[in-house]
Amino acid sequence: MSHNAQPLNARDVLRLSTKLAERMLHTNSTGHAFSVDELEAVVKAAEFLHAHNVPWPAVVTEIIDMLVAQKEAIGLAAGDTAASGSDVIR
Fold first, then answer.
1. Which of 2, 3, 9, 33 has its CA 20 to 30 A from that of 87?
2. Nearest Cα to 34, choosing from 46, 16, 22?
């Protein structure tokens, strides 16, 4: 079976990453977590757009900012926990 799939261009990635990021924001607004696959997809899309000198849509930037903030919060929590001598991150 032959697939005639064309490589994605920046316009396709821009459109798809916007839709994914909007869905992720909706998921977040309902109190649910993103999937790892969704996070990886939006990060890869952002990297692709950056490599092609295409500005990120605001909604993609919002998701990336949320990811960075969560990562920093986890790092701070881990640092605080290590300083207290506890093995559990709260």
1. 33
2. 22
